[in-house]
Amino acid sequence: MEQSLEHNLVLFVIIGTIGMFLLAGAIVVFFFVYQRKLNHQQLNLQRLETEYQQDLLKSSIEAQERERKRIAQDLHDDIGALLSTVKLGFYPIKKSAKENPNQLNLIQSTSNTLEEAISRVRQISKNLLPPTLEKFGLANALENFAAKITVPHTFEVEFVLVGEYERLDFEKELGLYRVVQELMNNIMKHAEASYVVIQLEIEPDQILLSVTDNGKGFDPDVFKKNNKNSGLGLRNIDSRLSLIPAKLHYNREIPKGSQAVIGIPKQNF
User: Fold this and answer.
1) Which fold does the domain 130-268 belong to in CATH?
2) Spans of all domains in the chain
């Protein structure tokens, strides 16, 4: 009888122990499954938040480009046309003033100023919406841009194409073009450079777009902190590149000046 009770007690203890292990195992499994679901939900929330931020950023940049396009068209079609009309009105005035040298000189000076104003309006219009970019692509647009801002013997800008360039989506090309514009704007304002190379290099697995100057160089982190307006420009660069997507880094090993290098992986071509 006593042996039977002891046997039952041992059996009960064994069953109870096994039950406790099973319960503990179930709790552990439940914890891991719950934690995995929680992590999955958090990743989904982060992904949705990132997508939402990207959509907001894209909408903001698209709105900027639409406004640039509108202003460019207004400058070209309205202001440019009005100035050209005024210029035409100077021809009969110049003819009637031939006998009065002083008056003719004044009219000629005013006409020259008007011609310069027309030229500047056209140039601003092209800068806001570069026609070469849409028609012929990034490589041609950068070459044209480099030639346009070069000042002989003072500020030389050279464009170099390495490899055979095939066009990207227009939105990506426009984003890269705006980034180069912003980098060049910072160089002209702060670098005290006399020579700049804009290089577009086509590699099998990526595209490299670099802007290198021979100026005094800078630390981008310190620059963002101490130059609020220009720092905003650098943040705008980061925002545009995130939509391509592309990565920007600054080469800190060059002996003089600065070099910004943008990398676009092949899957983003």
Assistant:
1) Heat Shock Protein 90 (3.30.565)
2) 2-126, 130-268
- Note the pLDDT of residue 220: 72
Dist. CA 172–CA 262, nearest whole Å: 13
- What does the pLDDT look like over 118-142, one tens digit per residue? 777 666 766 677 778 888 999 999 9
Residue 256 pLDDT more than 90? Answer: no
Q: So what's the pLDDT on residue 115?
A: 75
pTM: 0.64
Q: Which two tokens stand for residue 251?
A: 């080469």
Instruction: Spell out the long-range contacts of 149-155 with Cβ–Cβ below 8 A and sequence spacing 24 or more.
Output: 149/184, 149/188, 154/194, 155/188, 155/193, 155/194, 155/195, 155/196
Tell me what pLDDT residue 104 has. Answer: 67
Q: For residue 220, is the peptide bond before it cis, meaning its omega torsion is within 30 degrees of 0?
A: no
What does the alpha-carbon distance between residue 241 and residue 178 come to, in Å, rounded to a whole number?
10
Contact 242, 234 (CB under 8 A): no
- pLDDT, residue 153, reads 85
